[in-house]
Amino acid sequence: MSIYLRNVIRFILLVLIQVLLLNKIPLRWWSNPGGLPPYTPYIYPLFILLLPLSTPIPFLLIASFTMGITIDAFMDTGGIHAAACVLMAFLRTNVLTLLLPKRISEYQNMSPNTKSMGWTPFMTYAAILLALHHVVFYVIEIWSFHSIGYMLMKVFISLLTSLVFVALYSLFFSSSISTVYYDK
Amino acid sequence: MRNFILLIRRFWNVILFLILEAVSFSMISKSRNMQGMDIVSSSNAVVGYVYKKQNDVVYYFQLKRLNDSLLDENTRLRNQLAQYKADTFRDMIARIPVTVRDTTRRDSSGVTLAPTGAVKVIRYANYRYIPARVINNSISGDRTNYITINRGAADGVRKEMAVVTGNGIVGRINNVSEHLATVVSVLSDRKVSTKLSDGTAGLFTIWNPGSPEYVVTEKVPIYAKVKKGDSVFTTGYSFFPENILIGTVAKVDTMKATNAKNLKVKLSTNFRNLQYVYIVEDKISAERKELEAKNKQN
Fold first, then answer.
1. Cα separation of A184 and A108, whole Å?
2. pTM of the full predicted structure?
3. Is B9 on the interface with A (CB under 8 A)?
């Protein structure tokens, strides 16, 4: 399957999972035991995490902006997701340079995933960028530092559950995400 | 000039990044003011289609619960009807057939009244209720929560209309498209004009993020007689119809410093489980706004 088609399908799949399944989690009474604030896990940034390493930066930025706007339309958040996504995409290369043993230009036909990087580096990479995304998102969303504990709490629970879903997605779709792209 | 182009090419990524961030932030600020925007919102066609399709599937699994809630509401309305039989004309258009004295026909009673076929409206109702199904719902937002419903401009829904359920308040219409509308729910940073069951009015209720079950009625004067379990209602000053239940008082906090009480109110609407709502069309609201705008001009 072509690398473009694969990513388009992943885009649609992740949007549908996010909107139709994960956004419904806070509505369930069991999702916030003991007075926890309602939170939403976000899996859609995985699209940005899994784009191939050789993606040109302008394309990466525009693709993440599109992803963010799509989620914004579904969740009525204006442009908060887009802002968080674009920042995440901009800093993706820097985080990868820190985590990968070789230079990025040496991984021509790879995308960052559990097989090419290994579980621990991939989850670290996901955790750093998702944490960035969540912090930016909640800071813009709440837009006051009156209750900083509440904000940190929301970032933390949301991040934790997001990472669980990212890991689950990587397990379920391991054969599709850990393919080396030869058909450039 | 050449250097300038080279500079742009060198920092093209950063420039693109800044442009995209600027676009996002301008969209955020646009969505934060009261007007709302129409393209990036769940009342647009594509997003609405996805939510509608999903709701069509999920709908069948909720039918049992929905049945129960409608039955409850029916019972409640019947009880109310029995209690205030004379008062029910207030909220509906009451019509009586127009009759004339028919002189051509006479029977034993002397006078016959024959209907002319026309009807006469004897009393206007202030409100008309439009039922709608909730096709998307959110409670996890920290500033604003939106609900998408399957009624739009074609069904007579306009911006700023109130939305209620059978047993409580829901919010107000924000964006309207042809067949869909989004609602800013009460779980947002907009105040609702409130009165207590002992008659103390002029209060406001606001939602504090963190729980979809509770709202806070602020600055209740210390002399107001209020205890746990009392009901809290809307007033006619707000865009909601008068005397709609907001919820029951769950906790009374007395503030020594400001000499006021804050009431923690348990909402009577269950926002986790919204299925049907009613959009309230206020028939005299246009007239009222026009009149009130005249006051401001003078």
1. 10
2. 0.81
3. no
